[in-house]
Amino acid sequence: MPKTPAWQRKEGKSEEGGLNAKGRASYNKANPGKPDLKAPQPEGGKRRDSFCARMEGMKKKLTSEKTAKDPDSRINKSLRAWKC
Fold first, then answer.
1. Which of 4, 10, 30, 70 has the fewest Cβ atoms within 10 Å of its own Cβ atom?
2. pLDDT in tens, the chain (84 residues)
3. HSE of 7 in the Cβ direction (CA atoms, 13 Å)?
């Protein structure tokens, strides 16, 4: 049975939320036609603004109230990593 890519397994995910370097590398290898995934940009800029706006909307519409308030949920960890 083929092994799933690292970005879909725990070893490719960061404890702080999002993907670690190994996860980003495996995603880029599995999806060659898409632009490369990059590390978070917490210092600011267009990528950060776009990410924060997108994720805040997802958090409001697509998560349960319990998940939205849970500090250990993946969405909240990602928002913290990006300093949203």
1. 10
2. 568 888 888 898 888 878 888 999 999 998 888 888 888 888 888 889 999 999 888 888 888 888 888 888 888 888 888 888
3. 13
pTM here is: 0.65
| Angle subtended at Cα 83 by Cα 20 and Cα 46, rounded to the nearest 5 degrees | 90
Q: Is 48 exposed, middle or buried (0-12, 13-18, 19+ CB in 10 A)?
A: middle
Across 49-65, b (16+ Cβ under 10 Å) vs e yields eebeeebeeebeeebee
